[in-house]
Amino acid sequence: MLIGHQNAVSTWQSAMDGGKLHHAWLLAGPSGVGKATFAWKCAAQLVGADGPESPVAENHPDILELSRPPADDKEARNRDEGKPYKRKRNISVDQIRGLQRRLNTRPTLGACRAIIVDPADDLEASAANALLKSLEEPPAGNVFFLVTHRPGRLLPTIRSRCRTLRFEPLAEDQVRGIVASERPEADPGAIDRAVAGAFGSPGAAMTWLDEDMGKLDAAMRALIAEGDNGMERRGALAAAIGARPTPERIAAIFTLGRRLLTSRLRSAPPLQRQRIIDAHADLVSLAARAPTANFDPGLLAMEIGGLLASAALPREAA
Protein backbone atom coordinates (compact mmCIF):
# COMPACT_ATOMS: atom_id res chain seq x y z
CA MET A 1 0.00 0.00 0.00
CA LEU A 2 1.30 3.45 -0.97
CA ILE A 3 0.67 6.18 1.59
CA GLY A 4 1.17 9.84 0.73
CA HIS A 5 2.80 11.19 -2.45
CA GLN A 6 -0.48 12.34 -3.99
CA ASN A 7 1.28 14.68 -6.42
CA ALA A 8 3.29 11.81 -7.89
CA VAL A 9 0.20 9.61 -8.07
CA SER A 10 -1.83 12.34 -9.80
CA THR A 11 0.92 13.12 -12.30
CA TRP A 12 1.33 9.47 -13.25
CA GLN A 13 -2.41 8.85 -13.51
CA SER A 14 -2.91 11.93 -15.69
CA ALA A 15 -0.21 10.68 -18.04
CA MET A 16 -1.81 7.24 -18.20
CA ASP A 17 -5.30 8.63 -18.75
CA GLY A 18 -4.13 11.17 -21.33
CA GLY A 19 -2.29 8.65 -23.47
CA LYS A 20 0.90 10.74 -23.40
CA LEU A 21 3.12 8.52 -21.31
CA HIS A 22 6.77 9.49 -21.07
CA HIS A 23 9.18 6.61 -21.72
CA ALA A 24 11.34 7.21 -18.62
CA TRP A 25 10.48 8.33 -15.09
CA LEU A 26 12.96 9.40 -12.43
CA LEU A 27 11.60 8.75 -8.94
CA ALA A 28 13.71 10.97 -6.69
CA GLY A 29 13.68 11.43 -2.94
CA PRO A 30 15.03 10.13 0.37
CA SER A 31 15.47 6.40 0.76
CA GLY A 32 12.67 4.43 2.33
CA VAL A 33 9.77 6.80 1.56
CA GLY A 34 7.98 4.58 -0.97
CA LYS A 35 9.62 5.22 -4.35
CA ALA A 36 10.13 1.53 -5.16
CA THR A 37 6.58 0.71 -4.06
CA PHE A 38 5.34 3.44 -6.39
CA ALA A 39 7.46 2.07 -9.25
CA TRP A 40 6.00 -1.41 -8.84
CA LYS A 41 2.43 -0.08 -8.69
CA CYS A 42 2.94 1.95 -11.86
CA ALA A 43 4.60 -1.01 -13.59
CA ALA A 44 1.72 -3.30 -12.64
CA GLN A 45 -0.81 -0.82 -13.98
CA LEU A 46 1.18 -0.36 -17.17
CA VAL A 47 1.32 -4.07 -18.05
CA GLY A 48 -2.19 -4.84 -16.76
CA ALA A 49 -1.10 -6.74 -13.66
CA ASP A 50 -2.98 -4.68 -11.09
CA GLY A 51 -6.37 -6.41 -11.27
CA PRO A 52 -7.59 -9.44 -9.27
CA GLU A 53 -7.36 -11.73 -12.31
CA SER A 54 -3.91 -10.56 -13.39
CA PRO A 55 -0.59 -12.33 -12.75
CA VAL A 56 1.24 -11.35 -9.57
CA ALA A 57 3.31 -8.28 -10.46
CA GLU A 58 6.56 -9.62 -8.97
CA ASN A 59 6.41 -12.61 -11.32
CA HIS A 60 5.08 -10.83 -14.39
CA PRO A 61 7.23 -11.49 -17.48
CA ASP A 62 6.84 -7.91 -18.68
CA ILE A 63 8.15 -6.29 -15.49
CA LEU A 64 11.94 -6.38 -15.36
CA GLU A 65 13.86 -5.25 -12.27
CA LEU A 66 17.54 -4.42 -12.15
CA SER A 67 19.25 -4.19 -8.77
CA ARG A 68 22.56 -5.24 -7.28
CA PRO A 69 22.82 -9.03 -7.74
CA PRO A 70 24.05 -11.58 -5.16
CA ALA A 71 27.79 -11.36 -4.52
CA ASP A 72 28.50 -14.93 -5.65
CA ASP A 73 26.92 -18.34 -6.25
CA LYS A 74 26.64 -19.06 -2.52
CA GLU A 75 24.79 -15.81 -1.93
CA ALA A 76 22.56 -16.56 -4.92
CA ARG A 77 21.57 -19.84 -3.29
CA ASN A 78 20.83 -17.99 -0.06
CA ARG A 79 18.57 -15.61 -1.98
CA ASP A 80 16.76 -18.46 -3.72
CA GLU A 81 16.19 -20.12 -0.34
CA GLY A 82 14.77 -16.94 1.15
CA LYS A 83 17.79 -16.36 3.40
CA PRO A 84 19.68 -13.06 3.90
CA TYR A 85 22.35 -12.62 1.26
CA LYS A 86 25.18 -10.26 0.38
CA ARG A 87 25.00 -8.23 -2.82
CA LYS A 88 27.58 -6.95 -5.24
CA ARG A 89 28.48 -3.29 -4.93
CA ASN A 90 27.02 -2.13 -8.25
CA ILE A 91 24.61 -2.81 -11.08
CA SER A 92 26.96 -3.95 -13.85
CA VAL A 93 27.18 -3.19 -17.53
CA ASP A 94 26.55 -6.89 -18.24
CA GLN A 95 23.17 -6.58 -16.53
CA ILE A 96 22.30 -3.59 -18.73
CA ARG A 97 23.39 -5.43 -21.87
CA GLY A 98 21.27 -8.40 -20.87
CA LEU A 99 18.34 -6.03 -20.40
CA GLN A 100 18.93 -4.48 -23.81
CA ARG A 101 18.72 -7.88 -25.46
CA ARG A 102 15.29 -8.28 -23.86
CA LEU A 103 14.22 -4.85 -25.07
CA ASN A 104 14.77 -5.94 -28.67
CA THR A 105 11.99 -8.52 -28.29
CA ARG A 106 8.26 -7.90 -28.01
CA PRO A 107 6.59 -7.89 -24.59
CA THR A 108 5.31 -11.32 -23.60
CA LEU A 109 1.69 -10.70 -22.67
CA GLY A 110 0.73 -7.27 -23.95
CA ALA A 111 1.90 -4.12 -25.67
CA CYS A 112 4.02 -2.71 -22.82
CA ARG A 113 7.00 -3.63 -20.72
CA ALA A 114 8.18 -1.93 -17.50
CA ILE A 115 11.82 -1.72 -16.42
CA ILE A 116 12.61 -0.82 -12.79
CA VAL A 117 16.18 0.15 -11.86
CA ASP A 118 16.44 0.21 -8.06
CA PRO A 119 18.41 2.18 -7.19
CA ALA A 120 19.84 3.81 -10.27
CA ASP A 121 22.44 5.33 -7.91
CA ASP A 122 24.17 1.91 -7.93
CA LEU A 123 24.87 1.83 -11.68
CA GLU A 124 28.57 1.52 -12.37
CA ALA A 125 29.89 4.11 -14.82
CA SER A 126 29.87 1.85 -17.88
CA ALA A 127 26.40 0.59 -16.97
CA ALA A 128 25.09 4.16 -16.75
CA ASN A 129 26.49 4.95 -20.19
CA ALA A 130 24.96 1.79 -21.64
CA LEU A 131 21.56 2.57 -20.10
CA LEU A 132 21.73 6.07 -21.56
CA LYS A 133 21.68 4.59 -25.06
CA SER A 134 18.40 2.83 -24.32
CA LEU A 135 16.93 6.03 -22.89
CA GLU A 136 18.01 7.98 -25.98
CA GLU A 137 16.41 5.50 -28.40
CA PRO A 138 13.82 3.58 -26.38
CA PRO A 139 12.14 0.66 -28.15
CA ALA A 140 8.40 1.25 -28.43
CA GLY A 141 6.32 0.03 -25.52
CA ASN A 142 9.13 0.06 -22.95
CA VAL A 143 8.82 2.37 -19.95
CA PHE A 144 11.67 2.91 -17.47
CA PHE A 145 11.36 3.70 -13.76
CA LEU A 146 14.66 4.84 -12.24
CA VAL A 147 14.58 4.92 -8.43
CA THR A 148 17.15 7.32 -7.03
CA HIS A 149 17.97 8.51 -3.53
CA ARG A 150 20.63 10.94 -4.78
CA PRO A 151 19.76 12.13 -8.29
CA GLY A 152 22.83 14.35 -8.37
CA ARG A 153 24.98 11.23 -8.71
CA LEU A 154 23.32 10.29 -12.01
CA LEU A 155 24.58 11.45 -15.38
CA PRO A 156 22.97 14.77 -16.33
CA THR A 157 22.12 13.22 -19.70
CA ILE A 158 20.18 10.44 -17.93
CA ARG A 159 18.28 12.96 -15.81
CA SER A 160 17.46 15.07 -18.85
CA ARG A 161 15.77 12.16 -20.60
CA CYS A 162 13.48 11.35 -17.69
CA ARG A 163 10.37 12.95 -16.30
CA THR A 164 11.10 13.56 -12.63
CA LEU A 165 8.68 12.80 -9.81
CA ARG A 166 9.81 13.99 -6.38
CA PHE A 167 8.98 12.13 -3.18
CA GLU A 168 9.06 13.99 0.11
CA PRO A 169 9.34 12.55 3.64
CA LEU A 170 6.05 11.41 5.16
CA ALA A 171 4.37 12.86 8.23
CA GLU A 172 5.23 11.13 11.52
CA ASP A 173 1.74 9.69 11.93
CA GLN A 174 1.94 8.18 8.45
CA VAL A 175 5.33 6.64 9.22
CA ARG A 176 4.06 5.31 12.55
CA GLY A 177 1.05 3.68 10.89
CA ILE A 178 3.19 1.96 8.26
CA VAL A 179 5.75 0.71 10.78
CA ALA A 180 3.09 -0.56 13.18
CA SER A 181 1.50 -2.48 10.32
CA GLU A 182 4.78 -3.92 9.01
CA ARG A 183 6.33 -4.65 12.44
CA PRO A 184 3.32 -5.60 14.62
CA GLU A 185 5.55 -7.38 17.15
CA ALA A 186 7.58 -4.23 17.90
CA ASP A 187 7.24 -2.46 21.24
CA PRO A 188 5.23 0.80 20.87
CA GLY A 189 7.95 2.74 22.65
CA ALA A 190 10.57 1.40 20.26
CA ILE A 191 8.34 2.34 17.33
CA ASP A 192 8.06 5.90 18.67
CA ARG A 193 11.84 6.19 18.93
CA ALA A 194 12.28 4.70 15.46
CA VAL A 195 9.78 7.14 13.95
CA ALA A 196 11.46 10.10 15.66
CA GLY A 197 14.83 9.07 14.25
CA ALA A 198 13.62 8.24 10.75
CA PHE A 199 12.89 11.80 9.56
CA GLY A 200 9.83 10.84 7.54
CA SER A 201 11.13 7.56 6.08
CA PRO A 202 9.18 4.38 6.91
CA GLY A 203 12.03 2.32 5.48
CA ALA A 204 14.52 4.03 7.78
CA ALA A 205 12.22 3.49 10.76
CA MET A 206 11.98 -0.25 10.03
CA THR A 207 15.74 -0.45 9.57
CA TRP A 208 16.06 1.35 12.91
CA LEU A 209 14.06 -1.42 14.58
CA ASP A 210 15.71 -4.26 12.67
CA GLU A 211 19.23 -2.98 13.33
CA ASP A 212 18.59 -1.76 16.92
CA MET A 213 19.81 1.76 16.14
CA GLY A 214 18.83 3.44 19.43
CA LYS A 215 22.32 3.47 20.97
CA LEU A 216 23.81 4.60 17.67
CA ASP A 217 21.39 7.50 17.48
CA ALA A 218 22.21 8.64 21.01
CA ALA A 219 25.97 8.39 20.40
CA MET A 220 25.76 10.33 17.14
CA ARG A 221 23.59 13.08 18.60
CA ALA A 222 26.07 13.54 21.47
CA LEU A 223 28.99 13.86 19.05
CA ILE A 224 27.21 16.47 16.91
CA ALA A 225 26.06 18.49 19.93
CA GLU A 226 29.10 18.26 22.22
CA GLY A 227 32.10 17.16 20.14
CA ASP A 228 34.61 14.70 21.57
CA ASN A 229 37.78 16.13 23.02
CA GLY A 230 38.55 13.00 25.03
CA MET A 231 37.54 10.27 22.53
CA GLU A 232 34.96 8.83 24.93
CA ARG A 233 32.02 9.55 22.65
CA ARG A 234 33.79 7.99 19.67
CA GLY A 235 34.37 4.93 21.82
CA ALA A 236 30.66 4.82 22.62
CA LEU A 237 29.89 5.03 18.91
CA ALA A 238 32.28 2.18 18.14
CA ALA A 239 30.62 0.03 20.80
CA ALA A 240 27.19 0.81 19.36
CA ILE A 241 28.33 -0.03 15.82
CA GLY A 242 29.63 -3.41 16.93
CA ALA A 243 32.64 -5.52 16.03
CA ARG A 244 31.17 -7.10 12.89
CA PRO A 245 28.56 -4.80 11.35
CA THR A 246 26.86 -6.07 8.21
CA PRO A 247 26.99 -3.99 5.02
CA GLU A 248 23.32 -3.18 5.60
CA ARG A 249 24.07 -1.89 9.09
CA ILE A 250 26.95 0.22 7.84
CA ALA A 251 24.73 1.73 5.15
CA ALA A 252 22.09 2.49 7.79
CA ILE A 253 24.72 4.14 9.99
CA PHE A 254 25.78 6.51 7.21
CA THR A 255 22.16 7.32 6.38
CA LEU A 256 21.41 8.10 10.03
CA GLY A 257 24.49 10.31 10.32
CA ARG A 258 23.56 12.32 7.24
CA ARG A 259 20.00 12.79 8.43
CA LEU A 260 21.07 13.90 11.89
CA LEU A 261 23.43 16.48 10.43
CA THR A 262 20.75 17.76 8.04
CA SER A 263 18.26 18.01 10.89
CA ARG A 264 20.76 19.85 13.09
CA LEU A 265 21.50 22.36 10.32
CA ARG A 266 17.94 23.69 10.42
CA SER A 267 18.27 24.94 14.00
CA ALA A 268 22.03 25.54 14.24
CA PRO A 269 23.42 28.99 15.08
CA PRO A 270 25.21 30.73 12.21
CA LEU A 271 28.67 29.90 13.60
CA GLN A 272 27.92 26.18 13.40
CA ARG A 273 26.26 25.93 10.00
CA GLN A 274 29.40 25.76 7.88
CA ARG A 275 30.88 23.14 10.20
CA ILE A 276 27.77 20.99 9.73
CA ILE A 277 27.83 21.45 5.95
CA ASP A 278 31.50 20.43 5.80
CA ALA A 279 30.92 17.42 8.05
CA HIS A 280 27.99 16.30 5.90
CA ALA A 281 30.06 16.55 2.70
CA ASP A 282 32.90 14.57 4.29
CA LEU A 283 30.47 11.92 5.55
CA VAL A 284 28.99 11.51 2.05
CA SER A 285 32.52 11.09 0.67
CA LEU A 286 33.40 8.51 3.33
CA ALA A 287 30.18 6.59 2.65
CA ALA A 288 31.11 6.38 -1.04
CA ARG A 289 34.58 5.02 -0.20
CA ALA A 290 33.62 2.64 2.58
CA PRO A 291 32.29 -0.28 0.48
CA THR A 292 35.55 -0.59 -1.46
CA ALA A 293 38.06 0.51 1.21
CA ASN A 294 37.47 -2.51 3.47
CA PHE A 295 37.79 -0.44 6.66
CA ASP A 296 38.27 -2.14 10.00
CA PRO A 297 34.99 -1.51 11.90
CA GLY A 298 36.81 0.20 14.76
CA LEU A 299 38.68 2.49 12.38
CA LEU A 300 35.48 3.26 10.49
CA ALA A 301 33.75 4.16 13.76
CA MET A 302 36.58 6.55 14.62
CA GLU A 303 36.36 8.16 11.17
CA ILE A 304 32.58 8.61 11.40
CA GLY A 305 32.81 9.85 14.98
CA GLY A 306 35.50 12.36 14.11
CA LEU A 307 33.41 13.79 11.28
CA LEU A 308 30.33 14.11 13.46
CA ALA A 309 32.35 15.68 16.26
CA SER A 310 33.78 18.23 13.81
CA ALA A 311 30.25 19.60 13.36
CA ALA A 312 30.07 20.67 17.03
CA LEU A 313 30.98 24.17 18.09
CA PRO A 314 34.20 24.49 20.09
CA ARG A 315 33.44 24.84 23.79
CA GLU A 316 34.46 28.48 23.91
CA ALA A 317 32.13 29.32 20.98
CA ALA A 318 29.29 27.28 22.42
Structural write-up:
With 318 residues, the protein is of the alpha/beta class. It has two domains: 6-166, Rossmann fold, CATH 3.40.50; 212-310. The protein has 14 helices and five strands. It has helices spanning 6-18, 35-47, 73-80, 93-103, 125-136, 156-160, 172-182, 188-198, 202-211, 214-226, 232-241, 247-267, 270-293, 297-310, and strands at 24-28, 63-66, 113-117, 142-148, 163-166. A five-stranded parallel β-sheet has the order 2-3-4-1-5, sandwiched between helices. α5 (125-136) links the parallel β3 (113-117) and β4. α10 (214-226) packs across α12 (247-267). The protein is globular. The model has no long low-confidence stretch (mean pLDDT 91).
List the helices and strands and how they pair.
Layout: H1 6-18, E1 24-28, H2 35-47, E2 63-66, H3 73-80, H4 93-103, E3 113-117, H5 125-136, E4 142-148, H6 156-160, E5 163-166, H7 172-182, H8 188-198, H9 202-211, H10 214-226, H11 232-241, H12 247-267, H13 270-293, H14 297-310
Parallel strand pairs: 1-4, 1-5, 2-3, 3-4
Biased composition (Basic and acidic residues): 59-84
InterPro entries: AAA+_ATPase, DNA_Rep/Repair_Clamp_Loader, P-loop_NTPase
Protein name: DNA polymerase III subunit delta
